[in-house]
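Researcher: Go.
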Amino acid sequence: MVRGFARRLPYQTGCRGAPDLDGIQQLRLVIERLCARAGAAGVLRPGVTTDDLLLLLVSLGHAVQITDECRPRMWNRLLHISLDGLRADRREPLPGSR
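Model: Structure:
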């Protein structure tokens, strides 16, 4: 799943051909809705943005690509670390927050 998201994003390194701009916009809308719901439910860390989550997806997709052959499923550890950092009980301000 992470690989599929990363392939749709234009700033993903190694992307072949033109990015799927319609797919990116659809993904952005889904993430915006999820952020709003998670924020309203009090389960998403304050200050996390749609752009943060899009970049996180790209990062995770890249981690899958570069570790898949030599260390399969190592990306799973990074995913757990990332998800932990998104939890609402992480209240310290994020770098670059206004």
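Model: Residues 21-41 form the longest helix (21 residues).
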